[in-house]
Structure formats: structure tokens, C-alpha cells
């Protein structure tokens, strides 16, 4: 019990001494031991690393999980050391709704078929997002979090110890300075006009006491200086380890970029496949609609049938429907059946276009495309606005507008 009380009293005295030294330094009434420039640079670099790591970690968490309530839930599960429950991604939930809607509308209808196709793509996008979040969390977020909760806490602890050692060192320097001043004052030459010998005895005794106090202060200063130097070296080694932390975070950053690249590449491929499916289906739908419209606008055969002359002696001639002729457009186009060899480019109105994606021709009337190639395109009267006539050398055919970037 006595030991604990003495230790408590000693700790209280040390704390009071440090508080006084710190206050006097802030008020400019005490000297402060300055660290060397290299050490100060290491401290500034460590603080910068900690601050930016926190910001990058926080914003990456927002990127991977925009829902704040979900982030709080994951944080609580992590602190409780429990497994985070699996959560359905937005893409997977949208895919589920689209599939259910297609079943209600009829999976055989054009709208139902399209919903099923888009829903399947959304499901694949959701699965890719889940894999990306899992990979980024393990390869990028976990190392950053380990640094803040492990290495940085150790550095902060050693820095606090170093700060206390510095305060103790400066307090010892102040005590030594005061003891030397008092010793010099006590050792000053006494007044020889003094007639009482007792004053000489007291003066000599005080001088001896201050000499002992100076020796004690010097001894404490040497011990405190040794402890300060040892703690400074420990802290310096930890701060220099920040360079290794940067190397580790650089490797994790490369892994994060690779995961994100793979994720976006998968999404691009999924959407490209979906666009091809929808483009082919759309072309078939609009081609059928175009053919039906042209047939319905043809004049009735009776209006243009030739008059019957000498029906008794001449054989019956079947009536031939007359198709309206458009200047510069073959009849096959007006009927909705395109023969690329019969298409003549207009005298004006042709444009250059760059192909955005690969496209496979559905039939002989279409032109297969390769990404980034340049072709000549133009439109013909009566064509569907979502299609153009494309030419590449001696090859011609219909091409979807959505696969092109029209150039001026």
C-alpha cells in the first residue's frame, strides 16, 4: 500500500512538473528543446500520411457502398467481430424486378423478351459489382485500415512518450539553471563590514546546499537526456518506416486499379452483348413493320389493271400491282427488301462515320462492322431512321445508327 501511495504521489509530481513546463513554453517563459530538421520532416510526413490515408479510406468506402446506413451496419459488425450478412446489390434487385415483370407481361411478347434479356444482364452486372467490392475491400481497404489501427497507433504512442521525455528534459534544464543561479548568488563575496560571524556561517552553509542541488540537478539531467535520446531513436525508426508503408500502399493501389479495370471491362462486355442482342431484335422488329407498311400503302390492283380487250379471243392476263417509284431509290427498297447491289448513293448527303462497336450482320442485307473502322453512310427515303446504308469499299448494307459516330 505504501509503495502504491508513493508511486501515485511521484506520478502526480511528474505530471504537475510537465504541465508547468508545457504552460511556460506556451507562454514563452521557458526554453524548449527543438528537434532536428530531419526529425521534424519525418513527423510532418507521418501526419500527412495519416490524414490522407483516412480521407482515401473514407471516400473509397463511400464509393463501394454509397448507402450510409449500410456502412454503419458493416462498421458495427466489424467492431463486434461478426460476419457481415450478404446483401443483394442494386443490379441484382433490378434484375429480379425485371424478370418478375416479364413473367406478368408474358415472356413471349417483345417487351417481355427484352425485359428478360436486360434483367439477365443486370444480374451479371450485380454479380460483377459484388466481386469487385469484395476484392477491393480485401486488397485495398484492409491494408489502409490496418495501418491506421496498428502502425499509426504505435507511432502515436511513442510520440506521446517522446513528448513527455522532452518536457522532463526541459524541466531538468530549468531546475539546473535555477540551481546554478542560486549557487552563484550564495557564493558571492560577503560584505566585509558585517560584524556578526553567524552570517558567514549561514552563507557558507547555503553555498554548500546549492552546490549539492546543482550536482543533483546535473545527475537528473544526464539521466533524462539519456531517456530522451533513446526514445527519440525509437520514434525515428518508426517514422522512417512510413516509407515502407508507402510501398505497401502503392502495391495495394495497383491491385485496386486492376480490380476496378476488370470490373468495368466486364460491365462493358455485358452491355455490349446486350446492345447487340437488342440491336438485332430491334432491326427485325422494324424491318417487319417497314415491310408491312409498304405493302399496305400499295394501290389496289383494280385501280391499275389494264382494260379487258377481246376477252373472247385473248387469254386472261393477270393484273400486276404497280409499286410507287421513288427517284433514285430501287423498287426493292420501297418494298422493304433491300438489295445492296441495286443501291445507288445519292449525289449529296453522304457522311463519314466511325464504328463504335463490332456488329455481326444478321442477313445478307446488312453490313458487318468492326470497331474503330471508317465507313461512308447515307440514308434513303422511306428507310427506318434507326438504320443507314453503309459502304466499305465494294461492300454495302444496312447498319444500325447506334453503332456509329457520325462525323462532320
Q: What does the overall shape look like?
A: elongated
Gap from first CA to last CA: 93 Å
Main sheet?
5 strands, antiparallel
Helix share bin: 55-70%
Annotation field: number of helices: 9
Detail the poorly predicted runs: 191-195, 286-336
Give a short synopsis of this structure.
By secondary structure, this protein is α+β, with helices and mostly antiparallel strands.
Main attributes of the structure:
408 residues; 9 helices; 6% strand
Commentary on this structure:
The chain is α+β, with helices and mostly antiparallel strands. About 65% of the residues lie in helices and about 5% in strands. α2 (about 35-65) packs antiparallel against α5 (about 110-185), α5 (about 110-185) runs antiparallel to α6 (about 195-240) and α5 (about 110-185) packs antiparallel against α7. The relative contact order is 0.07.
Topology:
Layout (H helix, E strand, L loop, with lengths): L1 H25 L10 H28 L3 H12 L10 H16 L4 H77 L10 H44 L1 H55 L4 H4 L26 H4 L16 E5 L18 E5 L8 E6 L2 E6 L3 E3 L2
Antiparallel strand pairs: 1-2, 1-5, 2-3, 3-4
Helix pairs in contact: 1-5, 2-5, 4-5, 5-6, 5-7
Amino acid at each position: 500500500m505504501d509503495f502504491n501511495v508513493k508511486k501515485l504521489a511521484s506520478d502526480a509530481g511528474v505530471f504537475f512538473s510537465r504541465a508547468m513546463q508545457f504552460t511556460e513554453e506556451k507562454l514563452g517563459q521557458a526554453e524548449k528543446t527543438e528537434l532536428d530538421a530531419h526529425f521534424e520532416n519525418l513527423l510532418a510526413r507521418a501526419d500527412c500520411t495519416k490524414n490522407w490515408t483516412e480521407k482515401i479510406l473514407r471516400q473509397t468506402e463511400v464509393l463501394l457502398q454509397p448507402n450510409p446506413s449500410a456502412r454503419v451496419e458493416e462498421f458495427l459488425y466489424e467492431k463486434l467481430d461478426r460476419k457481415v450478412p450478404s446483401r443483394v446489390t442494386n443490379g441484382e434487385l433490378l434484375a429480379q424486378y425485371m424478370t418478375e415483370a416479364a413473367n406478368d407481361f408474358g415472356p413471349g411478347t417483345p417487351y417481355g423478351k427484352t425485359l428478360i434479356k436486360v434483367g439477365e444482364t443486370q444480374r451479371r452486372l450485380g454479380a460483377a459489382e459484388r466481386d469487385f467490392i469484395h476484392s477491393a475491400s480485401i486488397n485495398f481497404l484492409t491494408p489502409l485500415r490496418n495501418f491506421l489501427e496498428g502502425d499509426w497507433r504505435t507511432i502515436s504512442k511513442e510520440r506521446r512518450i517522446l513528448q513527455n521525455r522532452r518536457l522532463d528534459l526541459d524541466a531538468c534544464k530549468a531546475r539546473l539553471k535555477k540551481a546554478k543561479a542560486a549557487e552563484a548568488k550564495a557564493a558571492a563575496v560577503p560584505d566585509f563590514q558585517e560584524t556578526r560571524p553567524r552570517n558567514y556561517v549561514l552563507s557558507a552553509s547555503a553555498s554548500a546546499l546549492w552546490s549539492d542541488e546543482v550536482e543533483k540537478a546535473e545527475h537528473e539531467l544526464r539521466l533524462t537526456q539519456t531517456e530522451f535520446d533513446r526514445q527519440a531513436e525509437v520514434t525515428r525508426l518508426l517514422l522512417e518506416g512510413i516509407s515502407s508503408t508507402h510501398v505497401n500502399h502503392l502495391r495495394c493501389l495497383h491491385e485496386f486499379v486492376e480490380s476496378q479495370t476488370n470490373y468495368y471491362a466486364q460491365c462493358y462486355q455485358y452491355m455490349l452483348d446486350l446492345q447487340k442482342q437488342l440491336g438485332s431484335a430491334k432491326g427485325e422488329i422494324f424491318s417487319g413493320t417497314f415491310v408491312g407498311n409498304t405493302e399496305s400503302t400499295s394501290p389496289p390492283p383494280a385501280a391499275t389493271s389494264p382494260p379487258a380487250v377481246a376477252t373472247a379471243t385473248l387469254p386472261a392476263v393477270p393484273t400486276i400491282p404497280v409499286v410507287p417509284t421513288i427517284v433514285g431509290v430501287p423498287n426493292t427498297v420501297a418494298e422493304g427488301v433491300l438489295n445492296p447491289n441495286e443501291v445507288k448513293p445519292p449525289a449529296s448527303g453522304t457522311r463519314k462515320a466511325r464504328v463504335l462497336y463490332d456488329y455481326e450482320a444478321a442477313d445478307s442485307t446488312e453490313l458487318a462492322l468492326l470497331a474503330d473502322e471508317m465507313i461512308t453512310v447515307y440514308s434513303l427515303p422511306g428507310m427506318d431512321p434507326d438504320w443507314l446504308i453503309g459502304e466499305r469499299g465494294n461492300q454495302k448494307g444496312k447498319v444500325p445508327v447506334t453503332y456509329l459516330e457520325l462525323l462532320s
